[in-house]
Amino acid sequence: QKEVEQNSGPLSVPEGAIASLNCTYSDRGSQSFFWYRQYSGKSPELIMSIYSNGDKEDGRFTAQLNKASQYVSLLIRDSQPSDSATYLCAVEGNYGQNFVFGPGTRLSVLP
Amino acid sequence: NAGVTQTPKFQVLKTGQSMTLQCAQDMNHNSMYWYRQDPGMGLRLIYYSASEGTTDKGEVPNGYNVSRLNKREFSLRLESAAPSQTSVYFCASSDDVVLRGGGELFFGEGSRLTVL
C-alpha cells in the first residue's frame, strides 16, 4: 500500500514569513506530485504540480522534489492570512491516474 | 461555468437506509472519481471511472456501488448505510487518464453524510 505522510500541524507562522510544508512518500516509482489547498469546509484546489527533481516556482509558491529522498515540499513566501488552510500532498498512486493523498498539514498565518 | 456539481450537500441517514449521491461535470472530462474525506486521513478513493462505461474500485470500495451513467454523470450509491460511512464525499473529474503523470483533479463542493 502506497503511503503519503505529512505533519498534521497546525503549523503557525507570522504574516510575511516563509511557510515550509513537507511530505514524504513510500513508492520510489512515483512520478507525479501535487499540492492542493483546502479551506475549511471547502473542496481542494490545485496549487502546484511537479514531476522532476529540483524546484518549481509559481508566484509566492515553490515546490521542491527530491526523488532520491522520496521527499516533496511546498514553500510559501511572504505568507498571508489568506494562506491559512490545510495543504494536501498528493502522489501518483495505484489506480490509473489517481492519486494517494496525505492527511494534510493545517497552516495558520498569524497577522 | 458550473464545473463539478454534487447533490445533495447534506444528508442524514439511519443505519440500513440507502441513498445515492449524484455528480455531474460539464468540462467534457473522461475521468471521474469518488473520494471520501475523514478527519486525519486525507482523501481516500472509493471508485473511479476512466471513461464512459468503465468503473474500477479504489482504496475503500466496500459498501458502495457506482454507475457511470454517461460522460457527464457518475453516481455513488450506499445500499445499506453504516455509521462508518459518515464522512464528507467528494466527486472529482480530470481530463487526463492515459498519459503518465495524470492531470488536475477538479472537485465538487462535497456532500456531508451522517449515518446514525
Descriptors for this entry?
heterodimer, A: 111 residues, mainly beta, six-stranded mixed β-sheet, B: 116 residues, seven-stranded mixed β-sheet, 11 strands, 50% strand, globular
Write a short abstract of this structure.
The complex is a heterodimer of chains A (111) and B (116). Chain A has 111 residues and is mainly β.
Describe this structure in words.
- The complex is a heterodimer of chains A (111) and B (116).
- Chain A is mainly beta and 111 residues long.
- Chain A has strands at residues 4-6, 11-14, 19-25, 33-38, 45-50, 54-58, 61-66, 71-76, 85-92, 99-101, 105-110.
- In chain A, strand 6 and strand 7 form a beta hairpin.
- Chain A is globular.
- By secondary structure, chain B is mainly beta.
- Chain B has strands spanning 4-7, 10-13, 19-25, 31-38, 42-49, 56-57, 64-68, 74-78, 87-94, 106-107, 111-115.
- In chain B, strands 2, 4, 5, 6, 9, 10 and 11 form a seven-stranded mixed beta sheet that branches.
- Chain B is globular and about 35 Å long.
- In chain B, 39% of the residues are buried.
- The model of chain B has no long low-confidence stretch (mean pLDDT 90).
- Chain A binds chain B through residues 4, 8, 31-32, 34, 36, 42-46, 49, 51, 88, 90, 92-93, 95-104, and chain B through 31, 33, 35, 40-45, 48, 50, 56, 58-59, 90, 94, 96-105, 107-110.
